[in-house]
Amino acid sequence: MPHRPADSFTGRERVLMNWSLVFTRVPDLQARVLRTAVSGSEVWSEWEQIDAVFGGGGEVRTQMAAVFRRSGSACHRRSSAGL
What we know:
Layout: H1 12-25, E1 30-39, E2 42-51, E3 59-70, E4 73-81
C-alpha cells in the first residue's frame, strides 16, 4: 500500500520540486539500497534513509519503492515508508 495514496502526482517538475524540498529540510540525508529485485518492467528496492535533522536527530527509516519502466524510463512509482 502506498504511504500516502492521496498525494499522487505526475510530471518531472513535481518530482524535482518534491526532492528539492526534501534536501532543503534534510541537507544531511544519507540513503542506501538494502535489496533489489527485477521482474520484467518492474523494479523493487528497499531503502534505508538516515538523517540527523529530520524529527530532532538520528532518525533511521526504511522504505520500499516499486518503479515501473516503459521503454527504458520510469513511468510510475509506488512507495511505502516505515516497513
